[in-house]
Automatic annotation (TrEMBL):
Any Pfam family hit: DAO
Species: Sphingobium boeckii
Every Rhodanese domain range: 37-80
Cellular component GO terms held in the UniProt record: cytoplasm
Entry protein name: Sarcosine oxidase subunit beta
Segments passing through the bilayer: none
Organism lineage: Bacteria, Pseudomonadati, Pseudomonadota, Alphaproteobacteria, Sphingomonadales
Reactions listed under catalytic activity: sarcosine + O2 + H2O = formaldehyde + glycine + H2O2; sarcosine + (6S)-5,6,7,8-tetrahydrofolate + O2 = (6R)-5,10-methylene-5,6,7,8-tetrahydrofolate + glycine + H2O2
Cofactor(s) needed by this chain: FAD; FMN
Localization, UniProt: Cytoplasm
Keyword Oxidoreductase belongs to the record: yes
Length: 419
């Protein structure tokens, strides 16, 4: 059976009763030593391993995942991909990521279902319109496809929003990114896993890292302790999202990050009612409709630091109330599922990407502001950083040193959620 996915392969598979498909990736036993180990089998870890092998020729690489790949935030997020960031450093990075997403299905030979349906963020006051105009002008100068929309244009894009005369938060227009949209999150995980496996990466699930070994003389990383025994490594990439500070503890340094639960909600399936991603920063809610018909809803993070992946009731209530205010007809929709992921935030809502104080240990974290959209660029630039030992030019602004140098990249507005 052809290892490539294609229409012809589908047809052949169907004719053969779908019994002859190749295993998508292996489940190897861990080796005693790897040139590079990546901790965390989310999108960032898998994309990094893929690029280490494919782009930099490092094939003795393992991804260690304590649960199952995609069981963290990459499989728990609301799947919005956009690049409406204000500062030039973020604009360059996130716009590159959206461009990579546009080609990713072909690159990975896996349909990631990128639906560029556009994202509309509404404004409810004159002050918010002015603020959005400033953002849009700044982003346009940085090459991002952002535009302002009038109330009439907003109504055409999403007529079910609350335009009634009694609306407590009237819609006075908004900003729109047409290239933004949604991507099937599991497909990103599975696509990178399959592609990484094919170029020789060992993906080892049910393998939690419990300790980090360092050379007593140089302090450099020499390996990791895991629930499946000790594994030596030349280089160590850490891409564990909300658990980053725990890994830093194991290596003996602190990170300026805090971990919070961020919730998502999915409704019963509906007929098509919503063909953009609609968002209100003031109300603290955003919503899109999935291909299966469910409304996919997100809002602000829980108000206190936590590792509990279920999220709390007050936030669920606040997001539901905001949704009903925003799109009143959804008040009759039943919720099917709710969950949370643990996201890690820096003070400036930008990621931490690059070198760490420990030689041989590299950091990919701080994605609380939304790191699903960043996976293709994160993997590419993090792999470059690990392979060469030098931060990729697109990520130098996101170094850990920025907190020491007070060179913050304050993207709290682009993060879209409060924490
Ligand atoms: C509800 C919600 C909605 C979101 N919505 C969006 C959105 O719409 N758009 C967007 O761009 N971003 C969004 N995000 C953020 C996005 O999901 C994350 O930033 C992104 O998925 C991070 O990817 P990752 O690979 O770094 O982390 P993860 O996918 O979390 O992967 C990290 C992995 O590390 C593993 N791990 C942790 N500790 C260890 C250990 N000791 N040993 C081994 N493995 C370990 C975990 O099990 C996990 O699988 C959202 C997040 C949440 C929770």
């Amino acid at each position: 059976m052809s290892r490539n996915y294609s229409a012809l392969a589908l047809l052949r598979g169907a004719l053969g009763g779908n019994r002859n498909w190749d295993q998508a990736w292996r489940s190897p036993e861990p080796r005693a030593h790897y040139d590079a180990v990546i901790v965390g089998g989310g999108g960032h870890g898998l994309a990094t391993a893929y690029h280490l092998a494919k782009t930099h020729g490092m094939t003795n690489v393992a991804v260690l995942e304590k649960g199952w790949i995609g069981g963290g935030n990459t499989g728990r997020n609301t799947t919005i991909v956009r690049s409406d960031y204000y500062y030039p450093q973020s604009a360059a990075f996130f716009n590159h990521s959206v461009s990579l997403y546009e080609k990713l299905s072909r690159e990975l030979n896996f349909n990631i279902m990128f639906s560029q349906r556009g994202m509309l963020t509404v404004a409810h006051s004159r002050g918010e319109v002015d603020f959005q105009r400033r953002l849009v002008n700044g982003m346009a100068l940085n090459g991002i496809d952002m535009e302002m929309v009038t109330p009439d244009q907003a109504r055409k894009l999403c007529p079910i929003m609350n335009f009634g005369p009694e609306a407590r938060y009237p819609i006075l227009g908004g900003m729109l990114q047409r290239r933004a949209g949604t991507v099937r999150h599991d497909a990103v995980v599975w696509g990178y896993a399959r592609a990484a496996d094919r170029v020789g990466v060992d993906i080892i699930q049910n393998c939690g890292v419990t300790g980090i070994d360092r050379d007593p003389a140089s302090g450099a990383v020499t390996g990791v302790q895991t629930t499946r025994g000790a594994i030596g490594c030349g280089k160590l990439g850490v891409a564990v999202a909300g658990h980053s500070t725990m890994l830093a503890d194991m290596a003996g340094f602190r990170l300026p990050l805090r971990s919070y639960a961020l919730q998502a909600f999915v409704s019963e399936p509906l007929k098509p009612v919503l063909d953009v991603v609609a968002s209100s920063a003031l109300l603290g809610v955003y919503v899109s409709q999935s291909d299966k018909g469910g409304l996919v809803i997100g809002g602000n993070a829980d108000a206190y630091a936590s590792y509990a992946q279920r999220g709390n009731i007050p936030t669920a209530e606040a997001v539901s109330a905001a949704l009903v205010e925003f799109i009143p007809s959804f008040s009759r929709v039943k919720m099917l599922r709710q969950w949370a992921g643990i996201v890690d935030y820096a003070h400036d809502s930008s990621p931490v990407l690059g070198l760490s104080p420990v030689p041989g240990l590299y950091l990919n974290c701080g994605w609380g502001g939304g790191g699903f959209k960043a996976i293709p660029a994160g993997g590419e630039t993090f792999a470059h950083t690990i392979a060469t030992g030098t931060p990729h030019p697109l990520i130098t602004a996101f170094s850990l040193d920025r907190f020491r140098d007070l060179a913050l990249v304050d993207e709290a507005a682009a993060a879209g959620i409060e924490h």
